[in-house]
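User: My collaborator and I are trying to settle a disagreement about how two of our proteins should look. Neither of us wants to argue from intuition anymore, so we agreed to look at predicted structures for both before our next call. Could you fold the first one, then the second, and keep them clearly separated?

Assistant: That sounds like a sensible way to settle it. I'll keep them separate. The first protein:
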Amino acid sequence: MSTFRALVVNKTDESFTVGIETLSLDDLPEGEVTIRVAYSSVNYKDGLAVIPNGKILTRYPMIPGIDLAGTVVRSTDPRFKEGDEVIATSYDIGVSHEGGFSEYARVKTDWVVPLPEGLTLKEAMALGTAGLTAALSVHELEAHDITPDKGPVLVTGATGGVGSLAVAMLAKRGYHVVASTGKETEHGYLHQLGAREIIHRQELTPEKIRPLDKRRWAGAVDPVGGKTLAYVLSTMDHGGAIAVSGLTGGTEVNTTVFPFILRGVKLLGIDSAYCPMELRRTIWKRLASDLKPDHLADITEEITLDQLPETLDLILQGKLRGRKVVNLQ
């Protein structure tokens, strides 16, 4: 194919545009691996990339999309060959390097993961960066001895991409999952994913947060941050741990040292963007096996490239549930 379609964001002193454009392979950046993209996915970070003040893209014009999965059509590196099915997420993809909202992509070999046995290309993007982040969160909680017998594990922002997948993964691993959401219409959805309890998100943002409050959680997966994280810190059990990966609730956390020095609480930062490749491959293998959600299809809705701009707007409004997969075939 000499030409292909992609979502392009452009910004000049006079204007800001987001739209579908027809490009050629010569428009793609340098990289050892050229991929015919089958699917991409929609993340909160992608939503920020298509607004003027999102502070995600480092240059313009740019094809956003931090996730992609597809088939290698050309490789100058012997680690991959034509016909290999692969995944590429995060690093500079969709930020300073042309991304996954495109029918073709060219990336660095060091960013590419072979599709593990047990996953299809579509399932890989139903997971995407959100799934990688959720799985890293569960992996880190387990590494810090947060086991199902220790007590309830809280998931904040539970109807979002990371939250939905974390609920499903933790439930599959046998945890007592408490899901937090402000969407009362989604309780059935969260129970279906495996949540045993559901609480309203307002319960996690009281007007006054004590330095230490009643112990409630053995662990937590928090893609929200802000005031929510401050309250969760104050209500962790002794030896508890919180895997933090997001900022939809704000970047500032007003807390004290007391949860850390009086209860031994651990705050675990989850960085899926620059996760080392060895760990990344390990997590993708787990995503194809013991951490693969039982209800992945129920979490996923497929959209087209033409539907993408509207979907990106909805994710910024907090109106999406689960995962949106972009079909680029």
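The second protein, kept apart from the first:
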Amino acid sequence: MRMKPFVVAAGLALATALAGCTSFGSYQIFSSDYGARTDAGYQLPSIPIYKVDKKYHRQIVPYETVEKPGTIIVDTGAKHLYFVLPEGQAVRYGIGVGREGFEWSGTARVAMKREWPVWTPPAPMIKRQPELVKWRGGQPGGLQNPLGARALYLFNKGGDTGYRLHGTPEWASIGKSMSSGCIRLMNQDIIDLYNRAEVGAKVIVK
């Protein structure tokens, strides 16, 4: 029995949605990929993604650049991070960036990658927020850790920049300027970026 074209199309659309993404022409948006999951023994909670502006949902978009695939480009003004793919495309993520006085720009490379990393607040931060002194020796990784589920450590010719691309349990901060300079992503997004990015990858922050 031959199926009518609109039935086939509807079935394909449903299958795509159930697979975790929805296609719109050359775009793919992964709005259904923010559910709860178990990760390295941690029960990562779901994100109420409907409360996050859709432009900050992970998606594959057209993106023209002279940079090679695998490069990470951070647009702090638009609050977007791009992971460059072949053929003029990129994975785009919503991000939170540094608040006024903590912005930065430049070029670095991913020197290390860590899952559920330890967070050690720098001395200037402890001076501003004395309650953080308890973590002077490092806060163990976990659901309440400010670095979230993953961290990519950025180094340049001078060594450790002190800046990270990292996850955050504070999903409502995405699209805002409220960090101490690091670039934060939703935990489900930093896991995706972590799996794509290689140690040594070029990172451009502008």
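Some points you might bring to the call about the second protein. The chain has one domain: 60-205. Residues 60-205 form a domain with the L,D-transpeptidase catalytic domain-like fold (CATH 2.40.440.10).
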